[in-house]
Automatic annotation (TrEMBL), chains A, B:
It holds the Pfam family CoA_transf_3. This is Crotonobetainyl-CoA:carnitine CoA-transferase CaiB. InterPro entries: CoA-transferase_III_domain (IPR050483), CoA-Trfase_fam_III (IPR003673), CoA-Trfase_III_dom3_sf (IPR044855), CoA-Trfase_III_dom_1_sf (IPR023606). Keywords: Transferase. SUPFAM superfamilies: CoA-transferase family III (CaiB/BaiF). Gene3D superfamilies: Crotonobetainyl-coa:carnitine coa-transferase, domain 1, formyl-coa transferase, domain 3. It comes from Alteribacillus persepolensis. One of its GO terms (molecular function) is CoA-transferase activity.
Length: 394, 394
């Protein structure tokens, strides 16, 4: 049995934040029905690369979902949605604030039809406040949260995180608040509304930066790969590329000086003697360390560092990551056969649960794949379904 | 009523991933008891800046927790922990794999004393596999997940994300799996073990990159602030700094050319006519756009872009972020009076729930602050407590 077996989720969302959230609900057993706008459905279905007409991106974040296609801009489409909403426990949407009201599928409207619904909205800046109507894509959230201002090289151009962290971060924030609301509903038999924003979700991750700002007014700046409080804790150049070092205490620093780089004199060098000294002279420290590390390739150093118990690691490219022996051992890549598309791959699950693990049950739906099935279950007759199809409602 | 009222969580963790997870459980009503190792407690207590002796960083991620100090390396300390564990629903730890077994507080041991416990371990690489014993700090996870290899400037040095995203990401992954396990326990009256790793949690975010690699073997490289599939979608230089643009469809591109930069000819320019053209000529596009944008300060462009409904935004530094009117409206900064430390601030909550919102109930504990209270509740007599203190167990 999975934790969310018997929980029905309507996924009104598109692209990334909402679909990521509902995918994880599906991974844990929820019956997720993706409701896609007639005619094209989720924008992501247009995103390359494709396999047999299926967007690979769509397939990766829409596993464990069924799909219905519906024209929500028509009254009859809305009626179908209302009948569906009466059977649901959770609704997730990530339209721009105001759109669900225009479509007649906002929380207030749905609550009248299903008073115990858990309804979660995800948007760039939230449903309230002076910025609520602004378009909040992932990159704007990186800019607004301050995180872009502290990522990259000092004096370089702005740099964004290589993956859309705030779309996914907001999706996960929505996810765990839906679980809180579901637990509350199990105990108190009441639904509620949840308002999640990309920027709020991002801000909630700036805990060290908040502490440094609240405590001493420090405004963080980009520092390349360097930690702002600890050194050496960054990427260093070797003969063959870069490696990562994370020396977080004096014991490790001693072992590093004596047994890795064989520069015991650094331990008493006034520039590097204490953690504070090393942070103050972090540029010189980098030069000195790289002068040694560039004499040998990365592998040699990583072996020596590991032998001394000094935290270290490689910088893998994404192909190396996916083929890495630990990635394979942790089953982070799943192979499956999509009945319409053929052999495909998707990502594995981020945690291993002993009793109720995540499961891959359903491949991503083709556009409108389960429309008939879902309408029949809502007691639409075959004739009614034909009529809705003829009118281009479904 | 909060969703987790009556749920007791033991927080054996330190620094960031585990404490972040248990903080959010506390925000939602759980009774979190932070168990800190005698004598110094959580390493983060040593991290500057300080206010009246309290580490500001510690205070930000340990609100809504009580604290007990305990020497877990002694048999008597373990006995105290076992008594406490019998009263708990959830245990969270982020020691290196193997350490809890040495301390006699691993899942197998605790399960014998409390069969329904939910026990969550967080580590760099997971509890299984060839890398399980490696030190997995946030920076190593950024290196192993491939995310560092796709962040920064092409041909630049490696760049890490400005906040420790994978520590926090693993904390949140632990959090939502604990909620899954708790829902499972509410329904089936059984606990379980959860194994979370920083690298697995990070990999689960690489959904677009997985799709591009699985679908056509693409290995993502650093692209500064640029999107890999959409242009213009990046930071552009203006007369006064940088702004962000995210033009995700042709309608927006048209409005941008005609009404923002007033270069209608770009729409039919073979270099920029379609989305694919713009991605292929993204360098030239940047030059052309910046030649126009550097003629006016950011404010002028942002106003014009907003008027045209073209997604855009500033890049705020962290101080500007915290003082921004939307941040204030969303109550993302909380002021409170710590009884031992004085007036302090902390971050607000990332989602707004209509029925069971997160609450700030307790400031972060001083080291060992609730030791007596918790021991008394476990039926230790005053004499026994004195004896444990005398022996430096608590």
């Amino acid at each position: 049995m999975q934790p969310l077996e018997g929980v029905r989720v309507l996924d009104l969302s598109h692209v990334l934040a909402g679909p990521y959230c509902t995918m994880v609900l599906g991974d844990m057993g929820a019956e997720v029905i993706k409701v896609e706008q007639y005619p094209e459905g989720d924008l992501i279905r247009q995103m390359a690369p494709f396999q047999s007409g299926m967007s690979y991106g769509f397939s990766v974040i829409n596993r464990n979902k069924q799909g219905i296609r519906l024209d929500l801009t028509t009254e009859e489409g809305q009626e179908v949605f209302y009948r569906l909403a009466k059977t649901a426990d959770v609704i997730v949407e990530n339209y721009r604030p105001g759109v669900t009201k225009k479509l007649g599928i906002d929380y207030e409207t749905i609550k009248e039809k299903n008073p115990d619904i858990i309804y979660c909205s995800i948007s760039g800046f939230g449903q309230t406040g002076p910025y609520k109507h602004k378009a909040g894509l992932d990159i704007m959230a990186q800019g607004m949260s301050g995180i872009m201002s502290m990522t990259g090289e000092s004096n370089g151009r702005p740099v964004k995180v290589g993956v859309p962290v705030h779309d996914i971060g907001a999706g996960i924030t929505a996810l765990y608040h839906i679980l809180f609301a579901y637990i509350y509903k199990l105990k108190h038999h009441e639904g509620q509304y949840i308002d999640v924003s990309l920027v709020d979700s991002a801000l909630a991750w700036t805990v060290w930066e908040a502490a440094a700002y609240f405590g001493k007014g420090e405004i963080p700046v980009p520092s390349g790969s360097r930690h702002r409080r600890i050194a050496p804790y960054q990427a260093y150049k070797t003969q063959s590329g870069f490696i990562l070092l994370g020396i977080v205490n004096e014991r490790m620093w001693e072992r590093f000086c004596h047994h890795v780089v064989e520069r015991p004199q650094w331990q008493n060098d006034p520039r590097f003697a204490t953690g504070n000294d090393r942070i103050e002279n972090v540029e010189e420290l980098e030069k000195e360390i790289e002068a040694v590390l560039t004499t040998q390739p990365s592998d040699v150093w990583l072996k020596r560092l590991e032998k001394q118990g000094v935290p270290c690691g490689p910088i893998l490219n994404y192909e190396e990551t996916l083929h890495n022996e630990q990635t394979q051992h942790r089953e982070m890549v799943i192979d499956y056969d999509h009945p319409e598309v053929g052999l495909m791959k998707t990502l594995g699950f981020p945690a291993k649960m002993s009793k109720s693990p995540a499961e891959f049950r359903l491949p991503a739906p083709m556009l409108g794949q389960h429309t008939d099935h879902i309408l029949e279950e809502l007691d639409y007759s075959k004739a009614e379904i034909e009529r809705l199809k003829h009118k281009a409602i479904v």
